Amino acid sequence: MKKIILALLCVIVCAPLALADTIYLRDGRTVRGTVLGFIGGRFAVRVATTGAAAEQGEVQFFRPNQIERVEIEGRSLDEARFSSRTVEVGLAANWIDSGVDLRRGERVSVKANGTIVAGRSRITPGGLRSVDPTAPLPRAAEGVLIGAIGNEPDSPIIEIGIGRDFVADRDGRLYLTANRGTYSDARGAYTVQVRTERDLTPRRRDSTASRNNNDDAENDDIFDTRQSSPAPVRSRLPGGDNRDTGDSGRVGAPREVSVNVPGTSRDTDSGVDLRSGEQVTISASGTVVAGRRIGEVGPQGGRATGFGSIIGTRPVPTAGPGALIGFIRTSSGQITQPFLIGNQLTFNAQTDGRLILAINDDDYSDNGGNFAVRIRVN
Question: Which tens digit of pLDDT belongs to each residue from 356-368?
Answer without folding.
Answer: 999 998 888 888 8
